[in-house]
Amino acid sequence: MIILIPGIFVSLFAFQKQLPDAKEIVNKTNEKRRGETSMAELTISIIRPSWSRDMSVKTWSKGTENALILITAPVRDKGTVFLKRKNEIWNWVSSIDRNIKLPPSMMMQSWMGSDFTNDDLIKESSIVEDYTHKIVGDSVILGRACYKIELLPKEGAPVVWGKIYSWIDKSEYIELRSELYDEEGFLINEVVFSEIKELDGRELPSVMEYIPVDKEGHKTVMRYHTVDYDIPLEESFFSLQNMKRVQ
């Protein structure tokens, strides 16, 4: 038997209506971080128990389907270029003067020896459309009130992760932490964001740490130095021909 107590049903209904839309929160977070177009300079540090190395990188992006990555240092990697177009990744290899399209079999391989995979370069645009989103809790990170959002893959979606948890600042739409789980429910990677600062007028984390939980002492750290948003970038910039010109 269902007993409706006057006033309680109305207040519960009003509370449900006030809950923000989890998908919209994730979408706003992605849009704030990416912009319509962007150009960034950053350092990627690959850290291991007995060694570490740094790469200097420039990136350009337009929307969710186009991105170009140029390695500018160290000398042995300088001039290496990666192009993302939709769900494809191309690599310019200067030593053999040719572009190579990465096959599906290489998507889960390490990108430039880091803890990222090649698939990580293309998956971000699917976070909004290929997953369902649900607010499952609240937390405080870096003194900021956050939503804890659960992302579950839609049936048939071409995604790697079986579940994602994302902690997003309630007021500024800043992602501060995420956890990536495999299809069996085991935690595989943690992503920690920090050092929030103004980047081209947007309050964003300038440091991201990507940590594989089963490899002690392993992590990859991305540190953004500059970001320029909404700059003029034509579609033709993201072409196989232009991979040679951005050297």
Describe this structure in words.
With 247 residues, the chain is mainly β. Helix content is 13%, strand content 47%. The chain has four helices and 13 strands. A 13-stranded antiparallel beta sheet has the order 6-5-4-3-2-1-13-12-11-10-9-8-7. A hairpin with a 4-residue loop joins strand 1 and strand 2. It is globular, with a radius of gyration of 20 Å. The protein starts with 7 loop residues before the first helix and ends in an 18-residue tail after the last strand.
CATH topology name, in short, is outer membrane lipoprotein receptor (LolB), chain A
CATH class: Mainly Beta
The number of distinct β-strands equals 13
Strand content: over 45%
Major sheet description: 13 strands, antiparallel
Helix content: 10-25%
Name the helix and strand elements from N-terminus to C-terminus, one letter apiece: HHEEEEEEHHEEEEEEE
Largest sheet: spatial strand order = 6-5-4-3-2-1-13-12-11-10-9-8-7
Integer count of domains: 1
Mean pLDDT: 90
Terminus-to-terminus distance: 72 Å
Look at the helices and sheets and give the structural class. Answer: mainly beta
